[in-house]
Every structure is written in C-alpha cells, then in structure tokens.
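Need a sequence for this fold. Nothing fancy.
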C-alpha cells in the first residue's frame, strides 16, 4: 500500500540522489599549482626557435612529469594483466619512446604560446582533471578557443604526475589505448597480440 509518508520518503530519496549526481566536484588547488609549474617550465621550451632544442626540451619535460609506466599499462586496456615478464622488458622502453614522440608532436603545436591553468575538477582524491588555455590568444589564432586538459594522478605520498593530456576532450592516452587494443585484438589477442604490438612499436620508433 502506498501512503503519503512512503511517497514523501521516495521523493526525498530521489532528490538526495539527484543532489549527489549534480553536485559539482571540488577544485584542487595543489593539482592546479602542479600543472601551472609544468606550464611555466614549458614556456621557454615552447619559445625555442631551434627545432632540435625544442624537441629535446619537450622530451626532458615529458620524462620528468609523465608517469610512463602507469600510462603504458592504461593503454593496454584489458590486456595489461596478460603481459609476461619478457614482454614487460620489451614493451615499457618502447612505449616510453613512442609516447614521448606523441607528446613532443602534440605540444610542439603550441610553439610560441603561453598556457595558464584555468580550473580543475576532482574526479577522486587521486584523479584530477586540470584545464588550461592559451594566454592572450589573438583573434584568428587557431588555438584561441582550445581548452587543454591535463589528467593528474596523486599517489599515496601526495606526489603528482601527468597520466594523460589532450585538447577539447580528445585525450592522448585514450586514443592510444583504442589503437593498441585494436592491434592486439586483430592479431589474435593475448600474448600473441601483445607481441604484434611490440613489433609495431619497434617499427614506429625506429628501434
């Protein structure tokens, strides 16, 4: 039997659930400062006119702040648990070279630009999305309306690292995972498919 009291509690429960869903996540000042520090480091590098120095500087920046092992496991998707010890020894160095090239290529698009943090959202205590934009973008600048995202991971000790980056909701690591898992699946899956991915990575990085 449905009573007014039951209906009241059902409505109250529904409103409480809705509030939990619609309440925005809090900002994370520490993560914002971490990314701003990274961007400050990037500014002189992105101002470098010499291409070799530009790419070398970006490689150092990526190596310092991106958690390559965590990203490398993420890009394998459901196949990450199937890596053998021998495959790990081959895969992680190759992935680091490959991902560094991807970051170098992506970040070099912003040569001459200055980026600044504009906000953040805590997905959880350890998973934070920080947003940034180009400072003083001029009319007609192709990146004037771009929002550059940084996904930050905070470990148990409070140390932070970048685990993904992208622009306008297109994420590098997510795109890589789609490509990698497709290669693995199309080559028989499991260990056989992972071996095929390793061969492809060797070809792509010229190793």
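Here you go.
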């Amino acid at each position: 039997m449905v009573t007014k009291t039951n209906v009241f509690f059902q409505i109250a429960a529904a409103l409480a659930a809705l509030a939990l869903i619609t309440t925005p996540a809090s900002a994370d000042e520490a993560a914002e400062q971490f990314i701003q520090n990274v961007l400050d480091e990037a500014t002189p590098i992105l101002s470098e006119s010499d291409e070799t120095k530009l790419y070398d500087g970006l490689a150092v920046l990526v190596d310092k702040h991106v958690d390559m092992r965590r990203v490398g496991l993420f890009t394998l998707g459901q196949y990450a648990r199937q890596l053998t010890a021998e495959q790990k020894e081959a895969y992680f160095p190759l992935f680091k070279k490959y991902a560094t090239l991807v970051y170098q290529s992506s970040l070099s698009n912003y040569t001459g630009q200055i980026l600044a943090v504009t906000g953040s959202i805590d997905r959880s205590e350890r998973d934070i999305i920080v947003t940034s934009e180009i400072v003083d973008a001029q009319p007609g600048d192709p990146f004037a309306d771009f929002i550059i995202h940084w996904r930050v991971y905070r470990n148990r000790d409070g140390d932070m690292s970048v685990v993904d980056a992208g622009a306008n909701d297109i994420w590098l690591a997510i795109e890589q995972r789609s490509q990698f898992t497709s290669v693995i699946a199309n080559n028989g899956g499991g260990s056989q498919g992972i071996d095929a991915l390793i061969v492809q990575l060797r070809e792509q990085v010229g190793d």
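For context: The first strand starts at residue 115 and ends at 122.
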